[in-house]
Amino acid sequence: MNERLFGIHGAALTLRSERMGVIASNIANAATPGYKARDIDFNAALDARISGGAASDPRTAMVYRRPTMPSLDGNTVELNREQVAFAENAVAYSATLAFVQGRINNITRALTGE
Description:
By secondary structure, the protein is mainly alpha-helical. It has one domain. The protein has 4 helices and 2 strands; from the N terminus they run ααβαβα. The protein has helices at about 1-5, 10-30, 40-50, 80-110; strands at about 40, 60-65. It has a two-stranded antiparallel sheet. The longest helix has about 35 residues, at about 80-110.
């Protein structure tokens, strides 16, 4: 039912939320020696989620970021890069959420006869 009502937007909203958590974890560990920055390959995870099966777990699309300027303590978090990724993901999350809310409003109006 969810897929018929919202198309890929329901899955996209869930993945954006999960990606937000991964990026937030990177930011929180920016000063942790040896921490490896991770991210979710959104397109690969969405394709896997849409096709279903065991590959729908977002951890299968988890990738490690390659630092442009490696630190001496082995931490690969680049705070500026993480902040940009967080902001971009937040904007995409908000846009997807607005679409879903608009779809719900249309369905509600149709059901109430407005």
